[in-house]
Amino acid sequence: MAEMEDLVQSSSPLEQHILSSSSHPARNVGGWKAIRYILGNESFEKLASMSLIANMTVYLKTNTTWEGMVAVTLTAAVPQLTPPKCEGESHCLRPEKWQLGFLFVSLGFLSIGAGGIRPCNIAFGADQFDTRTAKGRANLESFFNWWYFCFTIALLVTLTGVIYIQTDVSWVIGFAIPTACLCFSISIFLIGHHTYICKKPQGSIFADMLKVITAAYRKRQLTIAPDSQHSFYDPPMNDSDVHLKLSRTDRFKFLDKAAIITEPSELDAQGRSKNTWRLCSLQQVEQLKCLVAIVPVWAKKLTGKDKRLTMPQRIKIGIVMSILCMLVAAIVEKRRRESALKHGSFTSPVTIALLLPQFVLSGLTEAFAAVAIMEFTPHKCQKA
């Protein structure tokens, strides 16, 4: 408790609030109270970013240079930030070097911002539920569906209303809308900060995977006895994460070598591994086993009698839809290109309705596979 108080006192005001909340379990944090802010943040962020990404080609063709988020609004509003407009399709002046520099810096900021929020938002939302209970696990699955629903609605608004404003009304207004949406996204996230459950980062899963593979390779000469009388490195977990602990399994036994303690000198005075690239915990080994196990998910079958399709079934259907989507898209693009070449133009006279089948298949792919993959949590992976 003293350590927690010292940590709170040495933190910023926002961090103090979060840490204090985590030390009082009775406080009403997490759950759907926090999820509503996360979903609002995700919806406006997706609307902002997709408004720029979806119409990038048109803006490039129109203005010959393109910038990110706030900067892209400036390029539409400030003529000095873009080269002169093209006279026809073949008479375009090259942009100045400083204009290109502005372009690359803006794209860099946009990439960094998107890379920071997109991998973390859905994981942060999943942290708001207690998966030790059946209700928490059910709410987690519901959250995945709501997250994808909000994403789809934001995409629908983007590809209809915002794109229309950008191309047919005004680029300035069209780019000001996603900029304002991003401001709303940040504001919503900050307003809900008092409701969040913030879990302490525990390192990179990719580094753990590499460590297990390296340690198992270094100890490849060891033989695992059938009676499993080896001494395995299995340190205790934090109380808050003990429910996530994976039991040792008999699959992919060669990976177990990474957790075998060959000599006492591999541990320090506190019983911790001195070299994590030579001795890994059983938890790290089992996490890698889970990942390897879901690769051939279409070779696996669940025997439960659910009313709805099981997750492996939905993933398999999504994979098939994805293959069909690519095949249909290839056929349509071949026809479009041949038609354009026949008329000696960059624009093909074929009807836009030809794009409908691939869009339908793409939507089915997302509906079946994307949501199911997000639901495919480690505890279900272990059952597969």
From TrEMBL:
InterPro entries named among the record's database cross-references: MFS_trans_sf, POT_fam
Protein name according to UniProt: Uncharacterized protein
Record's keyword terms, sorted: Membrane, Transmembrane, Transmembrane helix
Keyword Transmembrane included in the entry's annotation: yes
UniProt subcellular location: Membrane
Family: Belongs to the major facilitator superfamily. Proton-dependent oligopeptide transporter (POT/PTR) (TC 2.A.17) family.
Origin superkingdom: Eukaryota
GO cellular component: membrane
Transmembrane parts of this sequence: 100-124, 145-165, 171-192, 315-332, 352-374
GO molecular function, one term: transmembrane transporter activity
Database matches in Gene3D superfamilies: MFS general substrate transporter like domains
UniProt keyword annotation of Transmembrane helix present: yes
Organism: Hevea brasiliensis (Para rubber tree)
Regions annotated as coiled coil: none
Lipid bilayer topology: Multi-pass membrane protein
